[in-house]
Amino acid sequence: MVDPLITGVFVLYLVAVVSLGLYSGKGLDKFEDFSVMGRSAVAPLIIATLSGTFIGAGATLSTSGTASTVGITAIITLAIPWGIALALTSYFGDYLWEIGVEIDAHTLGDAAGHFYNKSTQFMIGILGMIMLTPVLAAQLAAVGNLFSTLLPLTYTSAVILGGVVVVLYSAIAGMRGVIITDWLQFVILMLVIPGLALYLTFTVGMDTVVQSVDSSTFDWSGGRTPFNLLSFIALIGLAEILTPYYVGRLFSSDSPPSKRGYVAAFSTTAYMICAVGLGLIGLTILPGAAGENIIPQMLIQVLPGPIGAIGIAALFAVIMSASDSILNAAAVIIVRDLYSLFGNPDDIDQLRMTRITTVVIGALAIGGAILLPSVLGLLELGYYYWAPTVLVVTIPMVVTQRRNFTPYAPPIAMLGTALFITVWFATGTPYGLNPLFPAFVVNGLLLVGVHFASKATGLGDSSEKKVKM
Amino acid sequence: MALMWSVILTAVTVVCGIVCVSTALGVLYLYSAALITGDQTIAAE
Fold this sequence. Notes:
The complex is a heterodimer of chains A (469) and B (45).
Chain A lengths: L3 H21 L6 H6 L6 H12 L2 H14 L2 H31 L4 H8 L2 H33 L4 H49 L2 H7 L13 H14 L4 H9 L5 H28 L8 H9 L2 H34 L8 H25 L4 H4 L6 H15 L8 H18 L9 H21 L13
Helix pairs in contact in A: 1-8, 1-14, 3-8, 3-11, 3-12, 3-14, 4-5, 4-12, 5-10, 5-11, 5-12, 5-17, 6-7, 7-8, 7-14, 7-15, 7-18, 8-12, 8-14, 8-15, 9-12, 13-14, 14-15, 17-18, 17-19, 18-19
Chain B lengths: L1 H36 L2 H5 L1
């Protein structure tokens, strides 16, 4: 059942986001403005964009859906580890930001290219793409599912509409447009979803919730052993550290971003706990409802028309603020870490190429979400390639701000680890174990092994590249 | 037991809700002031 009020509010919201995005792109003629907002983003923008990027369909719809099926353990397995990941990303953010300013880095690959070599930068670029593609496709599929349920649109036309809007302001205004629209979207989603949780806590009452749900809902562990619980927290926490879409935001800050990141991490965790609360309340007031539709259903059925419609606009904000960030990160990575390595493009060329790349990736993602939805499940495996391959090399480099291994070690170790993960998946995930932890160990061993082997054979470059030269 | 869970859930949701709403209002105020006055230094404070 499509409500004309929801359609009207949605159209207004879309016009506001696109206008703000396009307006912010005025006079944009430098690549640095497009990729990292000219390193000029002030505190409220960085808080909003870090949190807005983090809060996608997963943090909102999946968290409440998970809470409605497994109970409050969702706080331990989702809200807290995601907060830890954002806090750790913020902790490394100051070191990374300093490197960005010193060597004009736009991506993590840029920094690695400076300290190591082009092969390392190329590998990080490829691994970044392997990680970003599934996340973008999943977000666009979520756009299609949500829009087609709530608006007079089919799945296909919903994916096209959502995708085209995001591509439009991302291609014209780049990171500047993405960050400023994230600001608006963050305010809407942070007011509406937690506001709904507060409203229902006082109107429905948690005592009603406690009395009506099964007692297993209040099992903190969710039936997991402590070891299993800890490894689950570490898995989510590690997989999201310093991912390309956060790195672009850290570089965009006008001063060291860690404190801004901690505020974002804190408010993001609070937001996800509100989503858990909504999942539990949904179980009580919408009998039979469970899963990802629980928040949209509550917005439509429980709230008065106009407020519910604004809530639905907040859900669009949730998904679009995550998709635009991923799209921008993917385009900048392709140009900086892959295209720029072959030849020496000037500023105008890089800006033009990033805009074209944004449109091309956007079109491919829209096409993929429409034509190949069955492939999305397979692509999601790509998410696990980022952390174990890239972080083992880059975190020591970022913290020490120098090269830690011979230049031969990172590309070989990253390639070896990526192959290891592929074989792990191809053999059907042995012992049902996620490849993240074993891959970290394999990468560490390969790095140290190649480092000492290349030194012993005289291939190692003993000169150290430091950030301040 | 039921009363304890009811109090815990209410307290946690209320605290988290207030954290989110106040962050949103702070972020809205700081940057909209900068947009209106055209003074980026306001937002940096």
